[in-house]
Write a structure and sequence with these properties.
It is a single chain. This protein has a 5-stranded parallel β-sheet with strand order 2-7-1-8-9, sandwiched between helices. The chain has a 4-stranded mixed β-sheet with strand order 4-3-6-5. 44% of the residues lie in helices and 21% in strands. The chain has helices at residues 18-28, 58-66, 85-93, 104-113, 127-136, 142-156, 171-185, 193-204; strands at residues 7-12, 32-34, 37-39, 53-55, 70-76, 79-84, 97-101, 118-123, 164-167. It has a domain at 7-35 and 95-205: Rossmann fold. The radius of gyration is 18 Å and the shape is globular. By secondary structure, the protein is an alpha/beta fold. The two termini are 22 Å apart. A hairpin with a 2-residue loop joins strand 5 and strand 6. The structure holds guanosine-5'-monophosphate. The site of guanosine-5'-monophosphate has 14 residues, from strand 5, strand 6 and helix 4.
Length: 206
């Protein structure tokens, strides 16, 4: 139908285990590519420029927006985050399914512009587990943990606009469900709109 790869957005509460699901999708399947975002936040210990993120200044980020170099962008807890356009487009053209690990505002922008995008929302089984994971990670101050919890409450208001809620208590199961949905989405009418248009035209001339 179309050989172009699909666009897949993975969001979720901070501490939900999005990263684990993404790593497993990338290691178990050849078909996926991961988009590396641009951000103005400072690198955390162990993060490498060009691997976790492209770490840039606010000026550089704003210049990229002005040059229309981002597919979407949003601000999250005081920093800018955005998806560089060129890489995503070239990987999709190669037939790769491209994963964007982004927050909810960016996800909705993408869905608006590309309705065939698959939106996955990752959550732990309960709010209690979420809090334990955030505190247990130990990489952030209590102030940041509080901010992330507040943000989670806002995100919970939007999570029902996603195509799938992935409860991350069984990794294998979550990954299996994600792949099944991505496969199904490949034959959605939105994605096959060129085919639908062509066959309608053909039928019209019969
Ligand atoms: P962190 O600073 O913890 O790495 O990421 C904070 C949030 O920003 C996470 O929810 C992450 O998924 C999101 N994020 C990362 N890259 C992007 C991006 O390119 N665009 C948007 N909208 N959100 C992003």
């Amino acid at each position: 139908m179309t050989k172009k790869g699909a666009l897949i957005v993975i969001s979720g509460f901070s501490g939900a285990g999005k990263g684990t699901i993404v790593k497993k999708l990338l290691s178990d399947y050849d078909r996926f590519s991961l988009s590396i975002s641009m951000t103005t936040r400072a690198p955390r210990e162990g993060e490498v420029n060009g691997r976790e993120y492209f770490f840039v200044s606010k000026e550089e980020f704003e210049k990229t927006i002005a040059e229309d170099g981002l597919l979407e962008h949003a601000s999250y807890l005081g920093n800018y985050y955005g998806t560089p356009k060129a890489y995503v487009e070239s990987e999709m053209a190669k037939g790769k399914d491209v994963i964007l690990e982004i927050e909810v505002q960016g996800a909705l922008q993408i869905k608006e512009e590309f309705p065939e995008t698959v939106l996955l929302f990752v959550t732990p089984p309960s709010a209690e587990v979420l809090k334990e994971r955030l505190v247990g990670r130990g990489t952030e101050s209590m102030d940041v943990v509080e901010k992330r919890l507040r943000r989670a409450k806002e995100e919970a208001e939007i999570m029902d606009r996603y195509d799938m809620i992935l409860v991350n208590d069984d990794l294998e199961e979550a990954v299996k469900n994600a792949v099944a949905l991505i496969d199904a989405a490949k034959t959605s009418p939105q994605r096959c709109k060129d085919f639908v248009a062509r066959i309608r035209e053909e039928l019209g001339s019969l």
